[in-house]
Structure formats: C-alpha cells, structure tokens
Design goal:
Elements (H helix, E strand, L loop, with lengths): L14 H7 L2 H4 L3 H17 L5 H20 L11 H13 L12 H37 L4 E6 L2 E7 H26 L18 H7 L9 H6 L2 H27 L7 E2 L18 H24 L13 H25 L1 E2 L1 H10 L4 H10 L4 H18 L8 H7 L7 H4 L2 H6 L9 H17 L8
Antiparallel strand pairs: 1-2, 3-4
Length: 466
C-alpha cells in the first residue's frame, strides 16, 4: 500500500481501514490538475532557491512524463495507491530518484487537495457555462422562428392569455442566462490559490505564494491558511447553481412532457430522443425529458449532502471533507450530460403550430381582451368582466370559441359590441397589441431577440480577464 506517511506508525494499516480511507478510486479524476499544480509548485521552489535548477528541471520533466503516459494509456492509475497525490509522487520518485522526494517541500496534502479541487472545479464551471451558452443559442434560434407561432399561456396550468412560442421560450432563455451569471459570480469568488497554506498554518519555507497563484492563473493567494485548506463554500455554491440549472431544465422538461401528451399534441419529439414500449406498439415516450426531470433530485441530493457534511466541522481540515469529491463529480457529470441531451432534444423536436393556435382559441384566452374591448366602449370593468364570463359559459355549453359567436349573439349580451369585435379578439391582435418590453407582441419580441443576440455576442468567457 503506497502511502505518503508512516514514520509515526509501527504497524501497517488494517486493509479494511486503508480501503475505507483511500480516495484513489475517484480523486484520480483530477490527475492532470495534481500534476499541473505540482509543476507550478516546483517552479516557485526553484525561483525561491529552495530547489536547484537541475532538481527543478528533473522533477518537471518527470511530472510531464507521468502526465503524457497517463493520457496515452501507458501508465495506469491503480488502487494500490491511497490517493492521486501518492500515485504521482511515487511514480515521480521511481523515475527521477531522490530529487522526486523534494517535490513536497513546503506543501501538505491538505493544501494540495484544496488546490486540485479548485483547479478542477474552475474548469468544470467553464465547461458548464459553454453548454449553457450552446443551449441559449439554440433557444434564440427557435425564438426567431416562432415570433408568430401562437399558443396559450398558462397560469395554474389553466389556459390564460394568448402568447407566442417565442415568448414562452424566452422565459427559459432568461432563466438559463441567470444560471450563467451565477457561474460567473462563483468563479470570481473561488479563483484564489490555496497552495502554500500547508496543513493549516503555512510553512517556514520562504514560499512566494503570489508567484504560484500567477503561474496557475489565479487572481492571487488565499489570505488565511486555515480557510485555505478548509473552505468548501465554492463547491456548495457550485452545487447550488447546478441545482438551479436542473430545476430550470426540469420545469422545461415537464412542459415538454405535457406538450407531447395525446391531450395536448403541441410537439412531436424526434425519434432519436424518444423510446417505445415493449408491449404497446403505439407508444412514443419522452424518456429524455423524464430522465432530466428525474435526475434533478440526484443533483439536489449532492448539495444537501455536502451542506450536511460541512455544517459541524471545526477548523481546519478534517477527513469528512473527502466526501466532497464523489458528490460533486457525479453532480457535474449529471448536469453536463443533461444539458447536452436537452439541447439536442429541443433542437430536433417539431412544433404543431395549428394545434397550438387552436388550443389558444378554444381555451378562451382572448376573454381578457374581450373585456377590455367593452371597457373601451364605456362599460365599467366589473360589468364587462361579468358579461364576458357569461359569454364564456354560453360558449362552453355550445362547444364553441368566443370568435364563433355571430354579432347578433354578441349583442344579446351587450349592445356595446360592434362588428370590430372580431378583429379586437383575434389571436394575432391579442398578442401583437402587447408591445411593452417583455411582452409577447412581435415588435416587442424582435426587440428582445436583438438584445439577447447582443448579450450572446458580447458576453466574455468566464475567466477571460485572468
């Protein structure tokens, strides 16, 4: 069993205890970050005269060789090692001899793992942001195509007022845009280097932590060594942001599932993103949307678990913190997979425009506009509300839409109705006369679409200012 410690101990660790304590099965995921951090650490040690130039070059070459061999498959990361740090250091010593034993000078596994996790999380924040941007680009293309695709808007899952598909999709655009903002905020707060914090109280070696931070593209070093090794706030924030992403994906998925049902038939999912039944040949199931909805709880669980793990831990490092990795790795992989699949699903699904517009018409979504029509003819709003309510009840009994009434039938309810009522309550009019910013009218939507294009084209990548 390859361990970085042992001088204090007189007997070998029990094998069950060793296996329970080991983290190599999952922290091998950031072998690259561990090696990159070590290369930066060695460069700083050389600059400070703690290592000779020859020692530093030999160690760097050895580390780069390990990285190349792992990525080519020549060198396997096996579970004979306690963790990824043990794997790298043991293999380095095998390759460069005694010089490799100096790699850990001025460093603890506590600040080393804190660095690795920050480097890994930083990269994953960027990759998640890239996937969100791709989803936004797809949504924006769909919005441009559907500024005149009329559908019912809902409150309480009841048809309320007519909107357009572009307007509906635009609501999700705003949600995912806020998700990107959250990721950027997290990146800004977490982008400080904990390396040099030591176990908890720094080190007596004359390290240049500013230089190490610069080599690794951090804004600077963390300013408290105890916090440097025990901070997991950035992971909690990241898991919280990922949970919000999944909540948005789940809401959208739920609507797609409803729209795909026989009762709604607003959309038809592409065969590549659907499955059938083993017994019912007519079925075409929205499995991807359902799985995205289901996996949301998995990500929530990671957030809750890490919050629970951290809530009772005294300063500074405690082994409990090892539990952050599996949870975070799984949540990140889950969200990234869901984002990629969801974007593919919505980009290939077909909208049934005629069904959507008919649903808006027969759902009495123009009732509010009919009441407004009466108000504009001098009828008090409360009276207008009662008149239109009676008309809706009459239409329900006859199985028709408001638009289907003759002018004579309209006048049976109020003499204020004239023949221009049909234009006033047409779906197009109901939508397009709503022109305030954020409303579904075509002009308003076109303005918003241009603003969203500008946002996508001018928003810098996360970390671009580093």
């Amino acid at each position: 069993m390859a361990q970085l410690w042992g001088g204090r101990f007189t007997k070998e660790t029990d094998k069950l205890v060793y296996a329970f304590n080991a983290s190599i099965s999952y922290d091998k995921k950031f072998y690259r970050q561990d090696i990159e951090g070590s290369i930066a650490h060695v460069g700083m040690l050389e600059k400070q005269g703690i290592l000779t130039k020859d020692e530093a070059e030999r160690i760097k070459d050895g580390l780069k060789g390990i990285l190349e061999d792992v990525e080519s498959g020549k060198l396997k990361i096996t579970e004979e090692y306690e963790d990824i740090h043990s794997f790298v250091e043991a293999n380095l010593i095998d390759r460069v001899g005694d010089a490799g034993k100096k790699l850990h000078t001025g460093r603890s596994r506590n600040d080393q793992v804190a660095l690795d996790m920050r480097l890994y999380t930083r990269q994953e924040i960027k990759e998640t942001d890239d996937l969100l941007k791709a989803l936004l680009e797809t949504l924006l293309r769909m919005m441009e195509e559907h500024t005149m695709t009329i559908m019912p808007g809902f409150t309480h899952l009841q048809k309320a007022q007519p909107i357009t598909l572009a307007h509906h999709l635009g609501a999700y655009f705003e949600m995912f845009k806020r998700d990107r903002m959250r990721l950027k905020d997290i990146y800004e707060r977490m982008n400080f280097c904990p390396l040099g914090s030591g176990a908890l109280a720094g080190t007596t070696f004359p390290l240049d932590r500013e230089y190490t931070a610069k080599l690794l593209n951090f804004y600077g070093p963390t300013l408290n060594s105890m916090d440097g090794v025990s901070d997991r706030d950035y992971l909690i924030e990241f898991l919280s942001a990922l949970s919000t992403v999944m909540m948005h994906l789940s809401r959208f998925s739920e609507e797609i599932i409803i729209w795909n049902s026989n009762e709604y038939q607003f959309v038809e999912l592409d065969d590549a993103y659907s499955t059938g039944s083993s017994i019912m040949p007519q079925k075409k199931n929205p499995d991807i949307a359902e799985l995205v909805r289901g996996k949301t709880g998995r990500v929530y669980g990671a957030l809750t678990s890490l919050l629970t793990t951290m809530k009772g831990i005294p300063l500074a490092y405690n082994k409990d913190m090892q539990e952050d990795k599996e949870l975070t790795f799984d949540a990140i992989d889950t969200v990234k997979g869901c984002l990629a699949l969801f974007e593919g699903m919505i980009s290939t699904m077909r909208f049934k425009k005629d069904v959507m517009e008919k649903s808006a018409s027969h759902g009495f979504t123009n009732a509010t506009d009919a009441a407004d029509y009466l108000v504009n003819r001098g009828v008090a709003f409360r009276d207008a509300h009662g008149i239109i309510g009676s008309i809706v009840l009459h239409c329900i009994e006859k199985g028709i839409a408001i638009d289907d009434l003759s002018i004579e039938e309209f006048k049976e309810f109020s003499d204020a109705f004239e023949s221009d009522i049909y234009e006033a309550i047409s779906m197009e009019t109901c939508v397009n006369k709503r022109l305030t910013i954020g409303a579904p009218g075509k002009e308003a939507m076109e303005y918003v679409i241009e603003k969203e294009k500008e946002y996508l084209n001018t928003q810098p990548e996360i970390g671009a200012c580093v």
